[in-house]
Amino acid sequence: MKLFTKKSLAQLDAESERNPLRRSLGRVQLIALGVGSIIGTGIFVMTGTAASQNAGPALVLSMILTTIGCAFSGLCYAEFAAMVPIAGSAYTYAYATIGEFIAWIIGWDLILEYALSVSTVAVGWSGYFVSLANDIGIHIPVALTTPLGKVVTDQSGATITGIVNLPAIFIVLVVSTLLISGIRQSANANTVMVFIKAMVLVVFVVAGTAYVKRENLTPFIPPNTGGFGHFGWSGVLRGAGVMFFAYIGFDAVTTAAQESKDPQRDMPVGILGSLAICTVIYIGVAIVLTGIVHYSKLNVADPLAVGIDATGLKWLSPVIKVSALFGLFSTMLVQLLGQTRIFFSMSRDGLLPRVFGRVHSRFRTPHVSTILTGTVCALVAGLTPIEVLGQLVSIGTLLAFVLVCFGVVILRKTAPHNRRPFRTPGVPWVPALGAIICLAQMVGLPGETWVRLLIWLAIGLVIYFLYGHAHAHAARLINDNPAPALQLPENLAEHPAHLG
Protein backbone atom coordinates (compact mmCIF):
# COMPACT_ATOMS: atom_id res chain seq x y z
CA MET A 1 0.00 0.00 0.00
CA LYS A 2 1.53 3.29 -1.14
CA LEU A 3 0.39 5.46 1.74
CA PHE A 4 2.90 8.23 1.10
CA THR A 5 2.43 8.79 -2.62
CA LYS A 6 3.05 12.47 -3.34
CA LYS A 7 1.76 14.89 -5.95
CA SER A 8 4.38 16.72 -7.98
CA LEU A 9 4.11 20.43 -8.65
CA ALA A 10 3.72 19.56 -12.33
CA GLN A 11 0.59 17.57 -11.49
CA LEU A 12 -0.78 20.44 -9.42
CA ASP A 13 -0.09 22.91 -12.22
CA ALA A 14 -1.97 20.65 -14.64
CA GLU A 15 -4.93 20.53 -12.28
CA SER A 16 -4.85 24.32 -12.02
CA GLU A 17 -5.05 24.60 -15.81
CA ARG A 18 -8.12 22.32 -15.85
CA ASN A 19 -9.75 24.57 -13.26
CA PRO A 20 -13.58 24.64 -13.63
CA LEU A 21 -14.03 27.40 -11.02
CA ARG A 22 -14.30 31.07 -12.00
CA ARG A 23 -11.20 33.19 -11.30
CA SER A 24 -12.64 36.51 -10.13
CA LEU A 25 -10.91 37.42 -6.83
CA GLY A 26 -8.27 40.15 -6.53
CA ARG A 27 -6.08 41.28 -3.62
CA VAL A 28 -8.73 43.42 -1.94
CA GLN A 29 -11.30 40.64 -2.08
CA LEU A 30 -8.81 38.08 -0.76
CA ILE A 31 -7.84 40.32 2.16
CA ALA A 32 -11.55 40.88 2.80
CA LEU A 33 -12.12 37.11 2.76
CA GLY A 34 -9.40 36.72 5.39
CA VAL A 35 -10.64 39.58 7.57
CA GLY A 36 -14.21 38.38 7.11
CA SER A 37 -13.29 34.95 8.35
CA ILE A 38 -11.05 36.10 11.21
CA ILE A 39 -13.29 38.77 12.75
CA GLY A 40 -16.24 36.78 14.01
CA THR A 41 -17.34 34.79 17.04
CA GLY A 42 -13.82 34.91 18.46
CA ILE A 43 -13.78 38.65 19.05
CA PHE A 44 -17.52 39.12 19.54
CA VAL A 45 -18.03 36.20 21.97
CA MET A 46 -14.84 34.33 22.95
CA THR A 47 -13.13 37.44 24.36
CA GLY A 48 -15.58 37.41 27.25
CA THR A 49 -15.13 33.68 27.85
CA ALA A 50 -11.32 33.77 27.81
CA ALA A 51 -11.10 36.89 30.01
CA SER A 52 -13.62 35.73 32.64
CA GLN A 53 -12.55 32.08 32.84
CA ASN A 54 -8.85 32.02 32.01
CA ALA A 55 -6.68 35.12 31.65
CA GLY A 56 -8.42 38.21 33.06
CA PRO A 57 -6.85 41.48 31.76
CA ALA A 58 -3.85 39.39 30.65
CA LEU A 59 -6.05 38.35 27.74
CA VAL A 60 -3.88 40.79 25.81
CA LEU A 61 -0.86 38.53 26.46
CA SER A 62 -2.89 35.52 25.29
CA MET A 63 -3.66 37.37 22.07
CA ILE A 64 -0.03 38.35 21.54
CA LEU A 65 1.08 34.72 22.01
CA THR A 66 -1.56 33.57 19.54
CA THR A 67 -0.59 36.31 17.09
CA ILE A 68 3.07 35.22 17.11
CA GLY A 69 2.13 31.60 16.42
CA CYS A 70 -0.29 32.64 13.67
CA ALA A 71 2.29 34.97 12.09
CA PHE A 72 4.87 32.19 11.85
CA SER A 73 2.25 29.78 10.50
CA GLY A 74 0.92 32.46 8.13
CA LEU A 75 4.37 32.88 6.58
CA CYS A 76 4.47 29.14 5.95
CA TYR A 77 0.96 29.20 4.47
CA ALA A 78 1.97 32.11 2.23
CA GLU A 79 4.91 30.15 0.76
CA PHE A 80 2.71 27.15 0.00
CA ALA A 81 -0.19 29.22 -1.34
CA ALA A 82 2.08 31.00 -3.83
CA MET A 83 3.80 27.76 -4.79
CA VAL A 84 0.71 25.55 -5.03
CA PRO A 85 -2.22 27.68 -6.30
CA ILE A 86 -4.80 24.92 -5.89
CA ALA A 87 -7.91 24.83 -3.71
CA GLY A 88 -7.52 22.62 -0.67
CA SER A 89 -5.30 24.63 1.67
CA ALA A 90 -3.12 22.54 4.02
CA TYR A 91 -4.55 19.32 2.57
CA THR A 92 -3.08 20.05 -0.86
CA TYR A 93 0.22 21.23 0.63
CA ALA A 94 0.59 17.99 2.58
CA TYR A 95 -0.12 15.95 -0.57
CA ALA A 96 2.79 17.73 -2.27
CA THR A 97 5.24 17.42 0.62
CA ILE A 98 4.52 14.44 2.88
CA GLY A 99 2.17 12.17 0.96
CA GLU A 100 -1.37 10.89 0.63
CA PHE A 101 -1.85 9.44 4.11
CA ILE A 102 -0.86 12.60 5.97
CA ALA A 103 -2.83 14.64 3.43
CA TRP A 104 -5.91 12.61 4.31
CA ILE A 105 -5.39 13.22 8.03
CA ILE A 106 -5.07 16.97 7.44
CA GLY A 107 -8.02 17.03 5.06
CA TRP A 108 -10.18 15.17 7.56
CA ASP A 109 -8.93 17.52 10.26
CA LEU A 110 -9.81 20.57 8.10
CA ILE A 111 -13.33 19.23 7.67
CA LEU A 112 -13.61 19.35 11.44
CA GLU A 113 -12.16 22.88 11.52
CA TYR A 114 -14.28 24.51 8.85
CA ALA A 115 -17.58 22.71 9.40
CA LEU A 116 -17.60 23.17 13.16
CA SER A 117 -16.38 26.74 12.75
CA VAL A 118 -19.47 27.52 10.70
CA SER A 119 -21.66 25.93 13.38
CA THR A 120 -19.84 27.77 16.18
CA VAL A 121 -20.22 31.14 14.52
CA ALA A 122 -23.89 30.41 13.81
CA VAL A 123 -24.48 29.91 17.54
CA GLY A 124 -22.73 33.22 18.24
CA TRP A 125 -24.86 34.93 15.58
CA SER A 126 -27.97 33.51 17.22
CA GLY A 127 -26.98 35.02 20.59
CA TYR A 128 -26.64 38.53 19.18
CA PHE A 129 -29.79 38.14 17.07
CA VAL A 130 -31.87 37.13 20.08
CA SER A 131 -30.43 40.00 22.12
CA LEU A 132 -31.23 42.54 19.40
CA ALA A 133 -34.72 41.08 18.93
CA ASN A 134 -35.39 41.48 22.66
CA ASP A 135 -34.26 45.12 22.44
CA ILE A 136 -36.97 45.88 19.87
CA GLY A 137 -39.69 43.93 21.68
CA ILE A 138 -39.56 40.60 19.81
CA HIS A 139 -39.20 37.71 22.24
CA ILE A 140 -38.23 34.33 20.80
CA PRO A 141 -38.98 31.36 23.11
CA VAL A 142 -35.82 30.38 24.98
CA ALA A 143 -36.34 26.69 24.19
CA LEU A 144 -36.08 27.54 20.46
CA THR A 145 -32.78 29.41 20.84
CA THR A 146 -31.00 26.85 23.07
CA PRO A 147 -29.24 23.58 22.05
CA LEU A 148 -31.02 20.30 22.71
CA GLY A 149 -30.91 19.26 26.37
CA LYS A 150 -29.13 22.36 27.67
CA VAL A 151 -30.80 23.74 30.81
CA VAL A 152 -31.00 27.55 31.09
CA THR A 153 -32.82 30.09 33.24
CA ASP A 154 -34.94 32.77 31.56
CA GLN A 155 -35.47 36.36 32.73
CA SER A 156 -38.32 35.34 35.02
CA GLY A 157 -36.13 32.80 36.81
CA ALA A 158 -37.86 29.76 35.30
CA THR A 159 -35.73 26.75 34.33
CA ILE A 160 -36.06 25.75 30.67
CA THR A 161 -34.59 22.83 28.73
CA GLY A 162 -33.49 23.66 25.21
CA ILE A 163 -35.00 22.01 22.15
CA VAL A 164 -33.15 23.55 19.19
CA ASN A 165 -31.37 26.76 18.24
CA LEU A 166 -33.56 27.79 15.31
CA PRO A 167 -31.88 31.11 14.47
CA ALA A 168 -28.54 29.29 14.13
CA ILE A 169 -30.04 26.76 11.71
CA PHE A 170 -31.71 29.49 9.68
CA ILE A 171 -28.60 31.60 9.17
CA VAL A 172 -26.44 28.65 8.00
CA LEU A 173 -29.04 27.81 5.34
CA VAL A 174 -29.07 31.44 4.17
CA VAL A 175 -25.27 31.45 3.87
CA SER A 176 -25.34 28.17 1.92
CA THR A 177 -27.83 29.61 -0.56
CA LEU A 178 -25.65 32.67 -1.16
CA LEU A 179 -22.55 30.54 -1.76
CA ILE A 180 -24.33 28.40 -4.33
CA SER A 181 -25.27 31.53 -6.30
CA GLY A 182 -21.64 32.30 -7.16
CA ILE A 183 -18.21 33.21 -5.78
CA ARG A 184 -18.24 36.79 -7.12
CA GLN A 185 -21.57 37.61 -5.48
CA SER A 186 -20.45 35.98 -2.23
CA ALA A 187 -17.12 37.84 -2.21
CA ASN A 188 -18.70 41.22 -2.93
CA ALA A 189 -21.26 40.76 -0.15
CA ASN A 190 -18.46 39.70 2.19
CA THR A 191 -16.37 42.80 1.37
CA VAL A 192 -19.23 45.12 2.33
CA MET A 193 -19.89 43.30 5.61
CA VAL A 194 -16.18 43.20 6.47
CA PHE A 195 -15.94 46.97 6.13
CA ILE A 196 -18.96 47.48 8.39
CA LYS A 197 -17.78 45.24 11.22
CA ALA A 198 -14.17 46.47 11.10
CA MET A 199 -15.30 50.10 11.35
CA VAL A 200 -17.64 49.36 14.26
CA LEU A 201 -14.84 47.63 16.19
CA VAL A 202 -12.63 50.66 15.62
CA VAL A 203 -15.46 52.88 16.91
CA PHE A 204 -15.74 50.63 20.00
CA VAL A 205 -12.04 51.07 20.75
CA VAL A 206 -12.04 54.82 20.18
CA ALA A 207 -15.27 55.50 22.11
CA GLY A 208 -14.44 53.11 24.94
CA THR A 209 -10.92 54.38 25.62
CA ALA A 210 -12.22 57.29 27.70
CA TYR A 211 -14.06 54.87 30.03
CA VAL A 212 -11.16 52.53 30.83
CA LYS A 213 -10.59 52.21 34.60
CA ARG A 214 -7.17 51.32 35.97
CA GLU A 215 -8.68 49.21 38.80
CA ASN A 216 -10.28 46.87 36.23
CA LEU A 217 -6.82 46.09 34.85
CA THR A 218 -5.33 45.28 38.28
CA PRO A 219 -3.99 42.71 38.90
CA PHE A 220 -3.07 42.38 35.26
CA ILE A 221 -2.44 38.62 35.67
CA PRO A 222 -4.94 37.39 38.30
CA PRO A 223 -3.51 34.75 40.66
CA ASN A 224 -4.15 31.12 39.78
CA THR A 225 -7.19 29.67 41.54
CA GLY A 226 -5.68 26.20 41.94
CA GLY A 227 -6.32 24.55 38.59
CA PHE A 228 -4.40 24.62 35.32
CA GLY A 229 -5.78 27.26 33.00
CA HIS A 230 -7.70 29.18 35.64
CA PHE A 231 -5.74 32.45 35.71
CA GLY A 232 -2.04 32.88 36.42
CA TRP A 233 0.41 32.09 33.63
CA SER A 234 -1.33 28.80 32.86
CA GLY A 235 -4.48 30.87 32.35
CA VAL A 236 -2.64 33.01 29.81
CA LEU A 237 -1.70 29.83 27.94
CA ARG A 238 -5.24 28.44 28.14
CA GLY A 239 -6.57 31.82 27.07
CA ALA A 240 -4.30 31.71 24.04
CA GLY A 241 -5.75 28.32 23.10
CA VAL A 242 -9.30 29.59 23.52
CA MET A 243 -8.65 32.87 21.69
CA PHE A 244 -6.93 31.03 18.86
CA PHE A 245 -10.45 30.51 17.56
CA ALA A 246 -10.58 34.28 17.03
CA TYR A 247 -7.63 34.11 14.60
CA ILE A 248 -8.86 31.24 12.51
CA GLY A 249 -9.56 32.51 9.04
CA PHE A 250 -6.39 33.67 7.32
CA ASP A 251 -5.87 30.07 6.20
CA ALA A 252 -9.34 30.16 4.61
CA VAL A 253 -7.89 32.53 1.99
CA THR A 254 -5.88 29.62 0.60
CA THR A 255 -9.02 27.58 -0.09
CA ALA A 256 -9.97 30.15 -2.74
CA ALA A 257 -6.69 29.72 -4.68
CA GLN A 258 -8.46 28.44 -7.80
CA GLU A 259 -10.79 31.44 -7.75
CA SER A 260 -7.99 34.00 -7.45
CA LYS A 261 -6.99 36.00 -10.53
CA ASP A 262 -3.26 35.81 -9.72
CA PRO A 263 -2.74 33.36 -6.84
CA GLN A 264 1.09 33.42 -6.89
CA ARG A 265 1.12 37.18 -6.31
CA ASP A 266 -2.08 37.75 -4.35
CA MET A 267 -2.31 34.78 -1.96
CA PRO A 268 0.53 35.91 0.36
CA VAL A 269 -0.93 39.43 0.43
CA GLY A 270 -4.36 38.09 1.33
CA ILE A 271 -3.01 35.87 4.12
CA LEU A 272 -0.57 38.24 5.80
CA GLY A 273 -2.58 41.40 5.15
CA SER A 274 -5.74 40.07 6.79
CA LEU A 275 -3.78 38.74 9.77
CA ALA A 276 -2.03 42.08 10.34
CA ILE A 277 -5.25 44.13 10.17
CA CYS A 278 -7.09 41.86 12.59
CA THR A 279 -4.22 41.71 15.10
CA VAL A 280 -4.21 45.49 15.56
CA ILE A 281 -7.99 45.58 16.01
CA TYR A 282 -8.03 42.61 18.41
CA ILE A 283 -5.42 43.96 20.82
CA GLY A 284 -7.22 47.31 20.97
CA VAL A 285 -10.57 45.64 21.68
CA ALA A 286 -9.08 43.40 24.43
CA ILE A 287 -7.45 46.31 26.29
CA VAL A 288 -10.53 48.53 26.12
CA LEU A 289 -13.05 45.78 26.98
CA THR A 290 -11.25 44.53 30.10
CA GLY A 291 -10.59 48.12 31.12
CA ILE A 292 -14.25 49.13 30.90
CA VAL A 293 -15.76 46.05 32.60
CA HIS A 294 -14.18 43.85 35.27
CA TYR A 295 -13.22 40.55 33.64
CA SER A 296 -15.40 38.56 36.07
CA LYS A 297 -18.52 40.07 34.48
CA LEU A 298 -17.70 39.14 30.88
CA ASN A 299 -18.86 35.52 30.76
CA VAL A 300 -21.84 36.45 28.56
CA ALA A 301 -22.98 35.88 24.98
CA ASP A 302 -22.45 39.52 23.97
CA PRO A 303 -19.43 40.91 25.90
CA LEU A 304 -18.88 43.91 23.62
CA ALA A 305 -22.49 45.03 24.14
CA VAL A 306 -21.96 44.65 27.91
CA GLY A 307 -18.87 46.82 27.63
CA ILE A 308 -20.76 49.55 25.77
CA ASP A 309 -23.65 49.42 28.25
CA ALA A 310 -21.15 50.02 31.07
CA THR A 311 -20.00 53.25 29.41
CA GLY A 312 -23.51 54.68 29.26
CA LEU A 313 -23.27 55.08 25.47
CA LYS A 314 -26.62 53.33 24.96
CA TRP A 315 -26.86 54.41 21.32
CA LEU A 316 -23.77 52.35 20.47
CA SER A 317 -25.11 49.06 21.89
CA PRO A 318 -27.54 48.30 19.03
CA VAL A 319 -24.85 49.36 16.55
CA ILE A 320 -22.47 46.80 18.05
CA LYS A 321 -25.13 44.10 17.89
CA VAL A 322 -26.05 44.84 14.27
CA SER A 323 -22.36 44.91 13.38
CA ALA A 324 -21.90 41.54 15.09
CA LEU A 325 -24.72 40.09 12.98
CA PHE A 326 -23.05 41.32 9.78
CA GLY A 327 -19.63 40.27 10.99
CA LEU A 328 -20.61 36.77 11.99
CA PHE A 329 -22.51 36.31 8.74
CA SER A 330 -19.39 37.11 6.71
CA THR A 331 -17.34 34.72 8.86
CA MET A 332 -19.76 31.88 8.17
CA LEU A 333 -19.64 32.75 4.48
CA VAL A 334 -15.86 32.36 4.27
CA GLN A 335 -15.66 29.28 6.49
CA LEU A 336 -18.36 27.44 4.55
CA LEU A 337 -16.59 28.44 1.34
CA GLY A 338 -13.43 26.86 2.74
CA GLN A 339 -15.22 23.67 3.78
CA THR A 340 -16.77 23.07 0.37
CA ARG A 341 -13.43 23.69 -1.38
CA ILE A 342 -11.74 21.12 0.86
CA PHE A 343 -14.41 18.60 -0.15
CA PHE A 344 -13.92 19.68 -3.76
CA SER A 345 -10.17 18.96 -3.67
CA MET A 346 -10.45 15.65 -1.80
CA SER A 347 -13.15 14.47 -4.19
CA ARG A 348 -11.02 15.42 -7.18
CA ASP A 349 -8.25 13.24 -5.72
CA GLY A 350 -10.61 10.30 -5.21
CA LEU A 351 -10.39 10.31 -1.40
CA LEU A 352 -14.06 11.25 -1.13
CA PRO A 353 -16.98 10.34 -3.44
CA ARG A 354 -16.90 12.14 -6.78
CA VAL A 355 -20.23 13.85 -6.17
CA PHE A 356 -18.43 16.42 -3.98
CA GLY A 357 -16.46 17.54 -7.04
CA ARG A 358 -19.47 18.35 -9.20
CA VAL A 359 -19.76 21.95 -10.36
CA HIS A 360 -23.03 23.76 -11.08
CA SER A 361 -23.54 24.29 -14.83
CA ARG A 362 -24.58 27.96 -14.41
CA PHE A 363 -22.96 29.26 -11.22
CA ARG A 364 -19.73 27.20 -11.51
CA THR A 365 -19.73 26.48 -7.79
CA PRO A 366 -19.55 23.06 -6.04
CA HIS A 367 -23.26 23.10 -5.27
CA VAL A 368 -23.68 19.50 -4.09
CA SER A 369 -20.98 19.77 -1.43
CA THR A 370 -22.34 23.19 -0.40
CA ILE A 371 -25.86 21.83 0.09
CA LEU A 372 -24.68 18.78 2.05
CA THR A 373 -22.18 20.69 4.18
CA GLY A 374 -24.64 23.50 4.87
CA THR A 375 -27.29 21.06 6.02
CA VAL A 376 -24.94 19.24 8.40
CA CYS A 377 -23.53 22.50 9.78
CA ALA A 378 -27.04 23.83 10.36
CA LEU A 379 -28.05 20.75 12.36
CA VAL A 380 -24.86 20.83 14.44
CA ALA A 381 -25.36 24.55 15.14
CA GLY A 382 -28.91 23.94 16.26
CA LEU A 383 -28.06 21.13 18.65
CA THR A 384 -24.56 21.75 20.12
CA PRO A 385 -23.30 24.24 22.77
CA ILE A 386 -20.83 26.89 21.58
CA GLU A 387 -18.05 26.09 24.08
CA VAL A 388 -17.72 22.49 22.84
CA LEU A 389 -17.67 23.58 19.21
CA GLY A 390 -15.12 26.36 19.74
CA GLN A 391 -12.53 24.16 21.47
CA LEU A 392 -12.81 21.46 18.80
CA VAL A 393 -12.30 24.01 16.04
CA SER A 394 -9.24 25.43 17.80
CA ILE A 395 -7.48 22.10 18.32
CA GLY A 396 -8.23 20.96 14.77
CA THR A 397 -6.83 24.16 13.27
CA LEU A 398 -3.74 24.13 15.49
CA LEU A 399 -2.96 20.61 14.30
CA ALA A 400 -3.21 21.74 10.67
CA PHE A 401 -0.90 24.69 11.37
CA VAL A 402 1.71 22.43 12.96
CA LEU A 403 1.75 20.15 9.93
CA VAL A 404 1.98 23.08 7.48
CA CYS A 405 5.00 24.43 9.38
CA PHE A 406 6.70 21.03 9.16
CA GLY A 407 5.74 20.80 5.49
CA VAL A 408 7.71 23.94 4.57
CA VAL A 409 10.88 22.50 6.12
CA ILE A 410 10.38 19.12 4.44
CA LEU A 411 9.82 20.62 0.97
CA ARG A 412 12.86 22.89 1.31
CA LYS A 413 14.94 19.71 1.84
CA THR A 414 13.27 17.43 -0.72
CA ALA A 415 12.66 19.99 -3.48
CA PRO A 416 15.04 22.92 -2.87
CA HIS A 417 14.99 24.15 -6.49
CA ASN A 418 11.21 24.41 -6.96
CA ARG A 419 9.88 27.86 -7.81
CA ARG A 420 8.83 29.87 -4.76
CA PRO A 421 7.19 33.23 -5.60
CA PHE A 422 7.10 33.86 -1.84
CA ARG A 423 9.69 32.42 0.54
CA THR A 424 9.19 31.99 4.29
CA PRO A 425 12.08 33.83 5.99
CA GLY A 426 14.29 32.20 8.59
CA VAL A 427 13.74 28.55 7.64
CA PRO A 428 13.90 26.28 9.62
CA TRP A 429 13.59 28.53 12.70
CA VAL A 430 10.39 30.37 11.78
CA PRO A 431 8.46 27.17 10.92
CA ALA A 432 9.87 25.47 14.05
CA LEU A 433 8.75 28.32 16.30
CA GLY A 434 5.35 28.33 14.63
CA ALA A 435 4.93 24.61 15.28
CA ILE A 436 6.13 24.88 18.90
CA ILE A 437 3.77 27.75 19.75
CA CYS A 438 0.81 25.97 18.15
CA LEU A 439 1.65 22.76 20.03
CA ALA A 440 1.84 24.73 23.29
CA GLN A 441 -1.64 26.12 22.65
CA MET A 442 -2.93 22.61 21.95
CA VAL A 443 -1.52 21.47 25.30
CA GLY A 444 -3.41 24.31 26.96
CA LEU A 445 -6.79 23.01 25.77
CA PRO A 446 -8.91 20.69 27.99
CA GLY A 447 -8.31 16.93 27.94
CA GLU A 448 -11.84 16.13 26.73
CA THR A 449 -11.14 18.21 23.61
CA TRP A 450 -8.16 15.97 22.85
CA VAL A 451 -10.35 12.90 23.26
CA ARG A 452 -12.92 14.28 20.81
CA LEU A 453 -10.16 15.06 18.30
CA LEU A 454 -8.74 11.52 18.53
CA ILE A 455 -12.21 10.01 18.05
CA TRP A 456 -12.75 12.16 14.96
CA LEU A 457 -9.37 11.17 13.52
CA ALA A 458 -10.08 7.47 14.22
CA ILE A 459 -13.35 7.72 12.25
CA GLY A 460 -11.40 9.33 9.43
CA LEU A 461 -8.85 6.53 9.33
CA VAL A 462 -11.61 3.95 8.98
CA ILE A 463 -13.06 5.84 6.00
CA TYR A 464 -9.62 6.24 4.44
CA PHE A 465 -8.72 2.55 4.55
CA LEU A 466 -12.20 1.35 3.54
CA TYR A 467 -12.74 3.85 0.71
CA GLY A 468 -10.25 6.65 0.20
CA HIS A 469 -6.97 4.86 -0.46
CA ALA A 470 -8.22 2.56 -3.23
CA HIS A 471 -10.24 5.28 -4.95
CA ALA A 472 -7.35 7.73 -4.76
CA HIS A 473 -5.23 5.24 -6.74
CA ALA A 474 -7.94 5.03 -9.41
CA ALA A 475 -8.21 8.82 -9.54
CA ARG A 476 -4.45 9.15 -10.04
CA LEU A 477 -4.66 6.91 -13.09
CA ILE A 478 -7.36 9.15 -14.56
CA ASN A 479 -5.47 12.33 -13.67
CA ASP A 480 -2.35 11.00 -15.40
CA ASN A 481 -4.40 10.29 -18.57
CA PRO A 482 -7.21 12.86 -18.71
CA ALA A 483 -9.84 12.62 -21.40
CA PRO A 484 -9.55 15.50 -23.91
CA ALA A 485 -13.05 16.79 -23.17
CA LEU A 486 -12.22 17.18 -19.52
CA GLN A 487 -9.31 19.50 -20.24
CA LEU A 488 -11.58 22.41 -21.13
CA PRO A 489 -13.29 24.44 -18.41
CA GLU A 490 -16.16 25.13 -20.80
CA ASN A 491 -16.92 21.43 -21.10
CA LEU A 492 -16.79 21.03 -17.34
CA ALA A 493 -19.09 23.98 -16.90
CA GLU A 494 -21.62 22.58 -19.35
CA HIS A 495 -21.41 19.01 -18.11
CA PRO A 496 -20.69 18.98 -14.36
CA ALA A 497 -18.54 16.01 -13.56
CA HIS A 498 -15.82 14.83 -11.26
CA LEU A 499 -12.53 16.58 -11.95
CA GLY A 500 -9.77 14.41 -13.21
Produce the secondary structure layout.
Layout: H1 9-17, H2 27-38, H3 41-55, H4 59-83, H5 90-97, H6 100-135, E1 151-153, E2 159-161, H7 166-181, H8 183-208, H9 232-247, H10 263-292, H11 303-311, H12 316-348, H13 367-383, H14 386-414, H15 429-443, H16 447-480, H17 489-494
Antiparallel strand pairs: 1-2
The percent range for strand residues is under 5%
Largest β-sheet summary: 2 strands, antiparallel
Question: Low-confidence parts lasting 5 or more residues at pLDDT below 50?
Answer: 482-500
End-to-end Cα distance, whole Å, is 22 Å
Give helix % range.
55-70%
How many helices does DSSP assign?
A: 17
**How confident is the prediction overall: mean pLDDT?**
79
Count of distinct strands: 2
Sequence of secondary-structure elements: HHHHHHEEHHHHHHHHHHH
What would you call the shape?
Answer: globular
User: Largest beta sheet: what is the strand line-up?
Assistant: 1-2
| Oligomer designation | single chain
Radius of gyration: 22 Å
Classification by helices and strands: mainly alpha
